Amino acid sequence: MNRVINRYILREISIPFFMILFILTFVLLMGRILQLMDLMINKGINFTDIAKLILYLMPSFLMITIPVSLLISILIGLGRLSRDNEIIVLKSSGLSLYQLMPPIAFASLCAFFITAATGFFLIPYGNLATKNLLFDIAKQKASIGIKERIFNDNFAGLVLYAEEIPPHGDYMKGLFICDNRMLKEPATIIAQKGYLISNPESMQVTLRLENGSIHTTNTALTNYRRIDFSSYDINLDLSESIGGKNKAIAKDSREMSLLELIRKSRTPSLKKTALKDFIIEIHKKFTIPFSCIIFGIIGIPLGISKQRSGKSRGFVIGIIIIMIYYVLQIGGEALGETGILSPATGAWMSNLILGITGVYMLVMIAKEKPFVPACIRHIGIRILK
User: Per-residue pLDDT tens for 247-256?
Assistant: First the structure.
């Protein structure tokens, strides 16, 4: 009988979970759709690369949407059972509240492991793959986008003109470049020959010029300077070619795997502020997945309610709990970064507070006692109605 009940409760949770997970992930993805469409329509990026970018972005979305979907689905599923008095029937048949917890615990553990695997492996891989793909796109557009006898302005601060490009496209002849990156002293560069050099390690594309001269003047046109060179390198800013996506070369702490974060945090010459940031990111690899367990604990007493409010009640309460959690998380990280709390304590503060609150509420609801004072409960019921 317990297996039947467990499967029944798990089905009540799983159906809204997948629906909410799809909706929330789609909403987050819509924030990037316009930018991705700009890459495809205006920048000439093919659909295959756009699909890869979306695939690489999905882990960072799932890291947020899985815990949120779990909490709201528990509130909706248990709220439906409570409204239809099925919880009362189960208790009347001799089952305690703790005997109804295994399907919730199973769902929370599954969400925990999936979120942990996403944070440990998929997000670092997705970030690195995104950066490499954007670099390949930018490098391809840098070489393909340059046409002979056409002024090319795809590079930030530069206008490039090539008199001749051989069919194989390995180099360019008769280059004329207007360099406006130094606003006070714009430069005009003339070179007999130039070719592109890509460096995957530094994620840069360099335009190497040979046998030319640099002509500079100030904005008032009072000073003029000429420099002749046999070889001159220009690092191209490819942000215009790929929609501003290739600005960061070095890995950010949020893009590192757990082992990379631990290795980086043990660097002897590391500054205290950077060390705190790495420690917080290390702990966030665990705190965000562990929030699935916390949401499972706190969702049971909040989902089992005697109030016959609408189905939106679970969604509203879930949003409130999520807001409280992330406010506590941001506040704890800020306290950890400023040194008021240790970085580890700051990272775990939101889980500790909500975890203790959830256990207290669960014990009180199991004893058939109200876990909220009557005056506050009546005010909350009126607001939700």
Answer: 444 556 666 7
The domains of the chain are located at 2-139+254-384, 157-236
Residue with tokens 């496209």: 169
Give the span between the Cα atoms of 295 and 71, in whole angstroms.
5
Q: How far apart are CA 377 and CA 371, in angstroms?
A: 9
pLDDT at residue 136 in the model: 73
Is the Cα torsion angle 86, 88, 89, 93 positive or negative in sign? Answer: positive
Where residue 375 falls among pLDDT bands split at 50, 70, 90? very low
What pLDDT is stored for residue 87 in this prediction? 82
Residues forming beta bridges with residue 187, ordered by sequence position: 179, 216
Report which of residues 123 and 349 the model is more confident about: 349
What average pLDDT does the structure give for the chain? 81
Torsion region of 157: left, alpha or beta (phi above 0 gives left; psi -120 to 50 gives alpha) = left
200: phi then psi, degrees, rounded to nearest 5: -60, -30
Banded pLDDT at 359 (limits 50, 70, 90): very high
Q: Is the dihedral of CA 115, 120, 124, 126 positive or negative?
A: negative
Residue with tokens 């002897």: 268
The pLDDT of residue 245 is above 50: no
- pTM value surpassing 0.90: no
d(CA 98, CA 142): 63
Which pairs from 362-367 meet CB under 8 Å and 24+ separation?
Answer: 362/97, 362/297, 362/298, 362/300, 362/301, 364/301, 365/97, 365/300, 365/301, 365/304, 366/96, 366/97, 366/98
CB of 112 within 8 A of CB of 129? no
Neighbours of 78 (CB within 10 A): 25
What contacts 202, CB < 8 A, 6 or more positions away? 249
- Identify whether the C-beta of residue 365 lies closer than 8 Å to the C-beta of residue 371: yes
Q: Classify strands 187-199 and 204-217 as parallel, antiparallel or unpaired.
A: antiparallel
